Amino acid sequence: MSDVKKVVLAYSGGLDTSVIVKWLIETYGCEVIAFAADLGQKEELDGLEKKAIDTGASKIYIEDLREEFARDFVFPMLRANAVYEGIYLMGTSIARPLIAKRQVEIALKEKADAVCHGATGKGNDQVRFELTYMALHPAIKIIAAWRDERWPFDSRQSMIDYAGRHGIPLPLTKEKPYSSDRNLLHISHEGGILEDPWLEPYEDMFVLTVSPEKAPDEPTYVEIDFEKGNPVAVDGVQMSPAILIDHLNGMAGRNGIGRADMVENRFVGMKSRGVYETPGGTVLWAAHRAVESITMDREVMFLRDSLIPKYAQLVYYGFWFAPEMRVLQKMIDESQETVTGRARLKLYKGNCTVVGRKAPHSLYSEDLASFEKSGLYNQKDATGFIRLNALRLKVEALMKR
């Protein structure tokens, strides 16, 4: 690493990356270019440019990637109905490949020697960042600050002390007893007081959702239109991907929808507890499944559903740019060719309930499904169908005798 002269740092402006800017300059004697991706953090980006420059960065890129994030990362994952371990909609997981991708592009543009991230050696993000770096720019040098042998810090307080000695500006907000990560799709809370899996999260922790108890006493109805598996309109109003998610976040959050509390299995081998708020995403996943229910062939759905755990694992582990993900996404997208229609949902005190679905080319036949007389189905045909399916069961029973 002695020839590292210029580094592009994934920068958030928090304690870790603020300290890393100064540490990189001291340790490597290099120029540091900060990069912050606007993925929907909103006020968290305020004052970031001045802070980065004041800390020692030569320049900072702050780029609005919200539409790309929604269109090219969140929506493909939605088309797959991907959920990690049955609960987590992977708001953090899906953001990292985009941040790392753009970081590599900036490194190429700036002719930088290395890229750097502030993820710890215990978490998943270090893997997600570095797998993306290696997939998109195999020759780029990678500085993982927390795993660097010259990294001198062993606690949050030691970093705060270092920041004080070097005049590094830190947020003047009250320290939270847990860490958070926010983007357009969700906000996650972990660490600190949440490391006790028996402790119920404090109500003041939640940002995007009100408690179900404080949600309105009247339900909110919403209709979402899909075209080939992608949401395109809410209540008849066409919206861009990012605006649509943001709109649903507000609507669902007011109704207390989208909270999840789980103990998950990290890729590195340990279990960790996370508390998540994904209001708009929760509604979209339910609406998407509803439209699929009347537009997708049974066996195609069964095949796609069997691949959800693998798809979710690839996203969670950081293999977004792996060849198996490209193949899997093509299969998922083919399954979505017929998924065009509208879902109607009822949002009420933390519950998101599908109450209607329709599609221009629905596979659902009211005449066929009806208990009344139907000319499309002869009930007597079921006799042979049942006997053929029971044949192996009867043979086994006879053999046992």
Task: Write out key terms for the chains shown.
401 residues; alpha/beta; Rossmann fold; Argininosuccinate synthetase, chain A, domain 2; 5-stranded parallel beta sheet; 5-stranded antiparallel beta sheet; 14 strands; elongated
How does this model look, in words?
- The chain is of the alpha/beta class.
- Among the domains are: 6-69 and 89-165, 3-Layer(aba) Sandwich (Rossmann fold), CATH 3.40.50; 179-296 and 338-358, Alpha-Beta Complex (Argininosuccinate synthetase, chain A, domain 2).
- Helices cover 41% and strands 20% of the residues.
- The chain contains 12 helices and 14 strands.
- The chain has helices at 15-28, 48-55, 66-79, 91-110, 125-136, 156-165, 241-254, 279-295, 298-317, 323-335, 366-369, 381-400; strands spanning 6-10, 31-38, 59-64, 114-117, 141-144, 179-182, 187-190, 220-227, 230-234, 237-238, 259-265, 271-277, 341-348, 351-358.
- It has a 5-stranded parallel sheet, with helices on both faces. The protein has a 5-stranded antiparallel sheet with strand order 10-9-8-13-14.
- Helix 1 (15-28) links the parallel strand 1 and strand 2 (31-38).
- Helix 3 packs across helix 7, helix 4 (91-110) crosses helix 5 (125-136) and helix 7 (241-254) crosses helix 8 (279-295).
- The protein is elongated.
- The N and C termini lie far apart (75 Å).
- The mean pLDDT is 95.
Give a brief outline of the structure:
This protein has helices spanning 15-28, 48-55, 66-79, 91-110, 125-136, 156-165, 241-254, 279-295, 298-317, 323-335, 366-369, 381-400, and strands at 6-10, 31-38, 59-64, 114-117, 141-144, 179-182, 187-190, 220-227, 230-234, 237-238, 259-265, 271-277, 341-348, 351-358. With 401 residues, the protein is α/β, with parallel strands linked by helices.
